[in-house]
Amino acid sequence: MTTGSRATGLTGLARMGFSRLERADAEISELSQLAGLPREAVLEHAGGAADPDEALDGLLRIARRAPEEVAATLADPHGRAVAWRLLGASRGFADFYLRRPGSFPALVDAGDVLPDDAALRGALLGAVGAEDGFAATADESAWVALRVAYREQLARIAAYDLLSEDPVDAVRDVSAALADAAGAALEASLAVARVRAATGAAGAGLFPRGEVAQTRLAVIGMGKAGARELNYVSDVDVIFVGGVADDAEISEARALDIAHRLAVQTMRGISEMEVEPPLWEVDANLRPEGKQGALVRSLASHLAYYDRWAHSWEFQALLKARPLAGDRDLGAAYVAGTQPKVWASAGRENFVDSVQGMRERVMEHIPPADVPYQLKLGPGGIRDVEFTVQLIQLVHGVADTTIRIAGTLDALDALVAEGYIGRQDAATFARDYRMLRLLEHRLQLIGLTRTHLMPRTDEGLRVLARASGLADTGEGVQRLWERIKREVRDVHVRLFYRPLLSAVAALPEDQRSLTADEAHARLAAIGLRDPGGALRHIRALTSGLSRKATIQRHLMPVMLRWFADGVDPDHGLVSYRRISERLGDTPWFLRMLRDSTGAAEGLTKMLSGSRYIGDLMEWIPESVAWLDDQERLRPRAGDVLRAEARAIQDRHAGLEEAMAAVRALRRREMLRTAMGAVLGAITIEELGDALTTITEVTIQATLRAVRRDVVPPEDDSLDFAIIGMGRFGGAELGFGSDADVLYVYRPEQVDPTRAHDLAARIVSELRRVSEDFRLPLDLDAELRPEGRSGPIVRSLDAYAEYYRRWSLSWEAQALLRARGVAGSAKLIGDFMAMADEIRYPERIDLASTREIKRIKARVENERMPQRIDRTRHLKLGPGGLSDVEWLVQLLQLEHGHARPELRTTSTIAGLTAAREAGLVSEADAEQLAAAWRLAARLRSANTLYSGNTSDVLPTDRRALDGIGRILEYPPYSANDVEEDWLRASRRSRKVFERLFYGDPA
Fold first, then answer.
1. Are 429 and 385 in contact (CB under 8 A)?
2. Range with the poorest average pLDDT among 91-100, 347-356, 410-419, 862-871
3. What's the rounded Cα separation, in Å, for the pair 781 and 726?
């Protein structure tokens, strides 16, 4: 080839989608020679491949081993098209044909039609020579033949899929064919299992052939296999039902023993390692009692279990059950016996809540790094569609048999036809679900592996775009995926969390006491800023003839009055609607609100006065039940929380699973404390103790989980601890406070360099896994030696050496609030002993005292945000938290060595000790303590009201009123709140300047 023509050839290859041009050019020449075809013929359909380079590589590998088979396939124009499409989309099929080149020429007549169920069963049963339910041979060659035949049929399905003009529209038929192929594989594997049981193969037992023939075994398909919407590579969920033929001479117990052996062998034939790799996992864990339950049960045993012991999720799983293989009559009897129980399950207590909770738990168990890429389980993914459809089916299918359909797309059609889902929402769901499933299919085809993660590379996205035909570029398919996620999540949230048992229609006119216009005017008059929106929420809550709607109509007038008394009634009503929808038909919820005036009034007070509580309560709606018992609003004891946290570690072996449970514990207890604070069940001191305890328990549990994951057994002697600093060390946390910490370790028997590396890894993992997007927890290590420029973790010896040689006065001052919170008790003790020498010196020189005062003045000037009224800054402003804390700490530095009673990390306790020691007068101490307490309360109240953390007292009158109500001021006390703070801070500042700087009174 001349230089010019070669360049032109490379350009043409690039247009077809090749990226390794030089290599592709050489490989095409070699393939052309091996196949005995011109280059132009070989390349005829290359441009249709998702990844032409991979397709060419696969073709060449197969051709080098079996040139005749490849030549026969590529000589046929249709065969060429199928080969390029299939191998360009699937490296897994290239590997299969490399193992089994004799199967390759079958692609010549593949792709025009999908094989139906009869054809698939005929091909796979024929591969094992099955007659009357028994395969021709019992050895492993039968399993190999089964797997080869299955993959040949899978290739025919994939060829049809890849050649479809509209692959999105083909998803339903392709998924059904994949489910039929799985059923055929199980049928053929069962035929092999029967002959193995009758001939005494290893692990199969030895039973007379007649007894095996008299044994009935039905394989029930669950999940996607049952619904005929399977993936290319997926666990196939099954349940085994055993029994005995009516005219059999063996007992049922004997038949169940044989059936158990048959089930085990059937699963082995599909999933066990052989010369030809396994097909997929056969998962029987949906059976009664899960892994602990019998693999095979009789029909009567199954039905008895579902009558007495089954959980709600088990009925949801049964929605898609259908006979997949084995005894079809027994399978049909199983489905007939269980289906009435499925459709009655929605009447179970907390059913809707349990289904919603299960979906949320699935989300929480996704590794955080995978969430943005999760096609199936993540927000806006496949599961959002399926859970929504199933929940609506289960709730309304009790009385409406027309929506009792297994397949997701078929069920969507029925739901929209019967009016349970709007046409637009259903169309969005159906379109996006098909595209999600198409993307899932293309990703699994690549390696014939089970995956649900979108590509993380530009090249992976480019190949996916070409394979799916959904976009022209990788960037385009990424944009499409993001759009689908938003659309699906939006529809899911609106449908999945609505009150499903209420009628959709608005309240009939003859049941209203006001016209729409009158109601709009009345809502505006009582203080709602968006009366139109409020009216929509009220209609959503009270529409229909159900008992729930009736109780809501009884409650709504008085609850609206209570909402209107709050500072933000609009937000309160929205939150109430969301919580009502989250709780669904939980029987205790509305009964409690109806029968306990205090609970209903407390709920309205919290929701209209605290966005912090409203946002958290939406995720933990069962917390509403605490309102019926004042004791449940009080903080739980630290020992109780620590025991629960330790139990989490025992239940969850994995770091991510353990941390999801720890985060749930923290959110729950933070919400409990917030509710108690707003409803006046706890004092400011109890609040600080409670928040500190919750944070300590969280950090302790996190450290245990991280250490178990990071530190290998051989390095277990490594000592590691976390020291609380600042307000955390002083056990004076408020809502929105950071957790100031130091990290310390001691190598013990571990090599010092390795010990430092392990400690650094512990810190890195602690910071990563402690992140919580719903309720942030900031582990702030800026009070460490040298601040941000210093190492984030040091050994105990390094701390001691640093403090001995280089520490500044502010670093010794910071240690005054140091307190061990997690890790090695011995190391904490040694650290505290070292810290005592630094923070309680025998004497403090004048230069150090001057330096502390200089730094305090600099902090006031440099750290104060610009354009902020200094008098409104609760922390750094005059008379605020910082003034009181620095004064107490200066007294501790000066007198703590001689007066042990001053050795406390608590500001208020330190101030009390200073007063009792005569270092501060009683009047001065009272004014300082009053300002400190008020600043701390205002700071927490601001976070509770707004849901955001801020150290600045707002100027907005509505916000000040909201803060005041949380602090039990009368309504409309914005001026009083502001004046009380300005007065208290002025008095505190005068005392501070006199005692700290030595200014005259």
1. yes
2. 347-356
3. 10
Contact 197, 265 (CB under 8 A): yes
| DSSP string covering 329-350 | HHHHHHHHHHHHHHHHGGGSTT
Tokens of 788: 């941000």
pLDDT-derived band at 506, boundaries 50, 70, 90: very low
- Give Cβ neighbours of residue 541 (< 8 Å, ≥ 6 apart): 499, 549, 552, 556, 576, 577, 580
pLDDT band at 502 (very low <50, low <70, confident <90, very high): very low
* 845: amino acid identity, one letter: D
Distance CA(146)–CA(267), nearest Å, equals 13
* Mean pLDDT in residue range 186-195: 96
Find tokens 């103790």 and name the residue. Answer: 689
Token pair listed for 919: 């270092």
**Best CA proximity match to 668, nearest among 627, 606, 617, 629:** 617
Between CA 747 and CA 755 the distance in angstroms is 5
Where do the H-state alpha helices sit in 711-824? 726-729, 752-769, 796-805, 809-814
Pairing relation of β-strands 719-724 and 819-823? antiparallel
* Sole residue written with tokens 């898609």: 320
φ and ψ of 949, to 5 deg? -90, 130
Listed in sequence order, the residues at least 6 apart from 509 whose beta carbon sits closer than 8 Å to its beta carbon are: none
Q: Do the Cβ atoms of 985 and 877 come closer than 8 Å?
A: yes
Map residue 724 onto helix, strand or coil.
strand
Q: Which pLDDT score, from 0 to 100, does residue 517 have?
A: 61
Residues of the chain with pLDDT > 70, as a percent, come to 93
Tokens representing residue 947 in the block: 């849901």
φ, ψ at 307 (rounded to 5°): -70, -35
b vs e for 110-131, b when ≥16 Cβ sit within 10 Å of the residue's Cβ?
Answer: bbeebbeeebbbebbbebbbbe
Query: Can you give the C-alpha Rg of the chain in angstroms?
Result: 35
In the chain the first and final C-alpha atoms are separated, in Å, by 100
pLDDT of residue 664: 92
CB atoms within 10 A of CB 922: 10
**815 vs 723: CA distance, rounded Å:** 10
pLDDT at 500 (0 to 100): 30
Contact 241, 256 (CB under 8 A): no
The DSSP 8-state label assigned to residue 928 in this structure reads H
Q: Is the pLDDT of residue 5 over 60?
A: no
Strand ranges, E, within 387-534: none
| pLDDT mean over 530-542 | 82
Residue 893 to residue 812: CA distance in whole angstroms: 8
Rounded to 5 degrees, φ, ψ at 456 are -105, 5
- Which helix (H) or strand (E) element contains residue 780? strand 779-780
Nearest C-alpha neighbor of 393 from the set 360, 362, 371, 426 = 426
Tokens of 939: 């700071």
Q: What is the pLDDT of residue 503?
A: 25
User: What are 280's two structure tokens?
Assistant: 């997929």
At residue 346, does pLDDT exceed 80?
A: no
pLDDT-derived band of residue 830, with 50, 70 and 90 as boundaries? very high
What value does the mean pLDDT take over residues 198-203?
80
Distance of CA 259 to the CA centre of its chain: 39
Task: Provide the pLDDT for residue 582.
Answer: 85
| pLDDT of 257 | 94
In the block, tokens 């800023």 appear at 529
Cα separation, 157 vs 646, whole angstroms: 50
Lowest-confidence segment of 306-315, 328-337, 609-618, 796-805 by average pLDDT: 306-315
CA 852 to chain centre: 47
pTM above 0.70, yes or no: no
- Reduced 3-state DSSP string for 125-157: HHHCCCECCECCCCCHHHHHHHHHHHHHHHHHH
Residue bearing tokens 């699973």: 657
